[in-house]
Amino acid sequence: MSPSSDWFDEIVLGDPLRPDDSARRDRTRPPPAERSESASEEPSVTEGFDDLFVDFVDSAEFLDEDDESAADAQASSEESDEKPESTDPERDSLNTPIYSALFSWHAQPHAAQPSPAEGPRETVGPGPDAADDNWDDNTEGTDVETPSGPGGIVSGDDPADWAGDVDTSLVPPEEMRGVWLVTETGRESPLRLDGQPIEPEDLALPADIAYRLLDWSDQWQAEWDDARGWLPRARIGDFEALGRWLARRVKDSVGAIEVTLEPPHLGRAGLERIEAARTRPPIVVRLENDYGAPFPVWGDFVTESGVGSFSSELNLKLEGWAAHFEDHMDSVTGWDDPAAARDHAAFAAELAADMADELGPDYRVELDLWELTGVLDTEGPRR
Length: 383
Fold this sequence. Notes:
Layout: H1 6-11, H2 22-25, H3 32-37, H4 68-80, H5 89-92, H6 97-107, H7 160-163, E1 179-181, E2 191-193, E3 196-198, H8 207-223, E4 224-225, E5 229-230, H9 236-254, E6 259-261, E7 272-273, E8 283-288, E9 297-298, E10 302-303, E11 306-307, H10 312-328, E12 329-330, E13 334-335, H11 338-359, E14 363-368, E15 381-382
Parallel strand pairs: 1-6, 8-14
Antiparallel strand pairs: 1-2, 2-3, 4-5, 6-7, 8-9, 10-11, 12-13, 14-15
């Protein structure tokens, strides 16, 4: 170490973690007055910052210099608290000025700490008499337990703690009017008429719709637990998409009778009155490529082939179109061949038409060819 680092050696003098160097340990620091008056010595890094640094040479320096009574009390305490010499080498290693000073510091009472008679202080928030203007909603640093609500949503003791004005309570049967689609634990049929449980046969529904209603109920029984909510690997999106599709099919069958869909995990917040086919808006399904997406269809949908699926032939075409995009469209350099871009655009129009045929009038297919913008004079989404 260069001679200019002597001031650093003086600061850490007496540190028990430094090597056993008797020459350094036996050195004594000159009084602060002599250090400041000597022009030949290096300036102290703490010069001008005495209030921010602590000198561990004497534990009495932790006390306020202006409080002479406190210093006298500590000096008399040190004289009276003479302890016999210890024979334990580990404890002797702690009998150094720096550790003594640290122990003395921690032993002093602080104004911010309550006395044992006062007991622990509340840290969650102000008392009931605190003014509303002084209340701060930030509870960072407090250990507040937040149990899990339905579907794994973090909540408090009341759903209003996390949902605000959203009402997720279930509609009681006496308030139901018309046909109601709601799955219930322990019930096979998800249908009610004016609040009374009914079977699909009571509405003379087509056989395929009746079977799918029972499948919808079976998914609820298998993937939902009344105490824990949705179970791991639950297909929540498929459950909601199938319920919406079934509600429209039931409405088409019963005609003028009012039909309501109530997803039970959403309660009143998820209520949906089903309009007639001529007035209800279609559900949007988007055909769009993205890097790393092997299936280029976005949105929840149901077809005769299943939930989120088309016929096997159309599924293969969609996957091939996505693979063609990955093979020829680079994220930096763009298309590797103008002919590949033209083929990609032509095949996209054919796929959109096939999707619309299998989806039916409940859906609208939106084609987004962003990868061809500026290449074939294609501008953004096409609908």
